[in-house]
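Render this sequence as a predicted structure.
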Amino acid sequence: NAVDVTGEVQGTSLDINGNADISGTTVCNNTVTIVAGAPKLILKDNTDDDDHVIIFRNASDVDDYKIATQDFTSAATGDGLFIGSENADKVALVTNDTTALTLDTSQNATFAGDITCGDDLFMPSAGVINFNSGDMLITHSSNKLSISGGTTSINALELGQTDHVIEDGSNILDENDNTMMSFASGVANITGNAAT
C-alpha cells in the first residue's frame, strides 16, 4: 500500500519495506542503512539536465565535498561523474565515453598501489612525473623531456640522425668513475688509452 504525505515526517526511526519516492529534501542526522538482496540508491533526473549531486557537509553545515554527474559533451546525456570539493577545483573526473580518467591539472594525485595503463597515457604540456617527493623528476616542455635529480641508467641507447648536445664541463666516465672524455670550450679531451 502507498502512503502519501505532504509536509514533514519526524521521528527517531523510519522503516520502509519497499520503494520510497521522495520529491523534496530528506535530512538525516544519523545513519541511513539500505539492506536488501540487491540494495540500490537511485537518483532520477526527470529533466535529463545531469544535475544529480550527493553533497557532504561539515559540522558548520557548509557544503564541503560532492559527488555529481555532469554532461561533458553538451549532449545532455549524462556522460560522466566527477568527485570534487565545493571550494576548490575538481579532484577527479570519470567519463564513460570520452576519457577513462582525467585529473584536474591544479590537483595532485596520490595512488597507494601500482597503476596499470592498458592504453596510452596522456599528460598536458609542462607535465611532471615526480619520483619520491622530488628525488628525480621527468619534466616536459615544448618538444623536450628533462630528467633531473640523479643518475639515469639506460641499458641500450640508439641516437637518431640529428645533432646531440653535450654541455661544456661535462665528462664521460667509465664504470670506475674514471674520466674518459671531457668537454670544454668546444674541445673534446680524451684521457687514458688512445682511442681505436
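Summary. The two ends are 96 Å apart (CA to CA). Residues 44 and 52 are 8 Å apart (CA to CA).
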